[in-house]
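User: What would this chain look like folded?
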Amino acid sequence: MTNEGLAQAQRKMRSAGVAENAITVFSHYYAQLADGSTGVIPEESISPVTDLPRLADLRADATTPAPGRQPALGRTVIIKLNGGLGTSMGMQQAKSLLPVREGRTFLDLTVAQVLAARAEHDITLPLVMMDSFATSADTMAELSSSPAVRTPGLPLEFVQNQEPKLRADDLTPVDWPAAPDLEWCPPGHGDLYTALEGSGMLRRLLDAGYRYAAVSNVDNLGASPSAALAEWFAGTGAPFAMEVCERTRADRKGGHLAVRTADGRLILREAAQTAAADKGSFADISRHRYFNTNNLWLDLAQLADALASRNGVLGLPLICNRKHVDPTDSSSPEVLQLETAMGAALEVFEGATAIVVPRSRFLPVKTTNDLLVLRSDVYRVNDDGTLDRVSPATPLVTLDPGHYKLIADFEQRFPHGSPSLREAGSLTVEGDWTFGPNVVVRGDAVLPPTEEPSRVPASSILDGTTALAHAPRR
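Assistant: Here's the prediction, encoded as structure tokens.
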């Protein structure tokens, strides 16, 4: 059935208007799947990364332009990945439109960062969003109120591709009349390169004189435009660079860097590419010390050359995810989603490199736990849209997913905003607690499970010794 399955998938993609280069890339990975490829990277085939440059250790001449030379940031475009709806938090619109601080959204703060960098360095610095079909309309409507962010001659967005989910039993495109949209999935953020080319954006950027791209997730407000990193990247002559941070216990599930022993190349290994027997090594932060922030630097000219020489297929490692066609219905058919990670281009480009950056450049919001910290007094938001941590460390917040996972439930239980977390080491909430105003958390605080909805009274101080009565929620 596999040949017929591929033919069916190709017809379905063409009928939906998917770009031909995206169909070519999908067909490449379909062939790998049909041949039994799983994309798994065995621990025995890699070794740890031991030596990387650090932004903090670079000499000034590596991060500043030579006299009379245009700064590298002036030849750079900022690309923000903005394809997610925040469905894991119960959202139905672009996650970038979620308010972060004082009514300002991820998108508002991103725009502020770009406009501030333009003014500081007297450069154009285009902002381009990689939207999905689900986020494009909302995002473009929102950006219409910020005309200053537009760059003459360049669109504000390009749209990532979509591909059919495949039945796990016969590799044919799944049919789900109850919700036809669920028959499709994004190809992972590795689609960045395919969508850049297929949309014509790559050629437009090069023709307009832009040589580099700084790529990051729109929900990572730490990845602000950096003249120092742009200068360093341009000076390396590398086709690709990845910003990495040192792993902590909180990062054991994220993709890590390694060295492929067969050829000595840096590679990225994701959790989905790790065999069950290697899960312990994957999570060993003393062995695999660095994780991918998903802040990437691209040489657009070298990217265009690579795509042209490979018929549009960079050859990123396959990630095969097994799910249900309806994620909320475990009785719905099992499907396979063929994905790639954009950071995996590290192993594709000869001379690709990585640099260790401060943790301040990695502030993603994946859950309401992260959102609570970002909204708290742990961070100060500057006029230029950047964030400064003003507490000694970032506290670990763990909220009961049964009551706080969805944004509507979360907002209901923090009607007065985040408690003060500046003096907190951790906050664990087990149960259904609604927080009153002016609550302060110090040290390591735990709110125990509740039999009924309860309330943290106004101006409470929560610490390791505080025991709150189960005050009914009013």
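The first strand starts at residue 46 and ends at 47. If you want, I can go into more detail on any region.
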